[in-house]
Amino acid sequence: MRPLSGAATPTFLNVATGSSTGTYSTMFKNIGKVCAQSAYLKERGTSGSLENIDLLLGNEVSLAFVQSDVLKAKEQIDGDARVQNIKALLPLHSEEVHLFAKPVVQKRDLLGRVTTTGVGTFNDLKGKRVAAWGGSIITARVLSAKLGVPFAVLSVKDRDSAFALLRANQADAVLAVVGQPATWVKDLSGVNLIPVPYAPALQGIYTSAKLLYPTLGAGSVPTVAVQSVLATRDFKTPEKKDLLLKYQKCAMSKLVNLQEDEGMHPKWQEVTFKTWPWPQYK
Fold it and tell me: Coiled-coil ranges per the record (predicted)?
């Protein structure tokens, strides 16, 4: 059906998510199932939070799924004043830090002395190499500094590149920030989940969490988590503001559907829309 003569052209906004199989993309599609306003939002696949913030600040997208620690680092470490113009349209779920390494290897010499190589604890990362991509690059650097364990962060373009380095022994571990349960994590083999300790130095940015992946042969693995947000810029034009606020209102009013309808991502079950780690868009 053609729009009536004189009718306003609909406003379409681009939304930066992540990989097509990731939590961000899935949750964006989930909102689309319950909110008609999503028809005016177009998904743009990316490498994750770091690219998403750059796209948002560069005016290439109007909304972006991001980790709140990456936002804070952009503001406090990089001193990027443009971050002051970013607002949280929706506060979302916590994303857990997943730290992967090959199984620890023990060798006994002729004198019976045992040497251990590999990564079994977070402290074992000292002086080693950790591959990460997207917002996880920032998380790796922040955790290294806050927990006092210096290691080199290898910046790669995506997940496949990170694990290729690990398999080739060119990285000692892989760090990924992703909401569990992540399908791709369930499919991994030949790696262990390494505990990430929670310390007072992380308070205000991260919270204590646990990972549960029976397929990796692990029970409950301690880690830390950071809250994610669907962020936007502080738009003032009436058309954009109206669309964004209606989308925000719809998602909030449909939280029960997002939590209980079959096929929705399990991370919705921990969303409350009550904790805002970043100033709210109003």
Answer: none
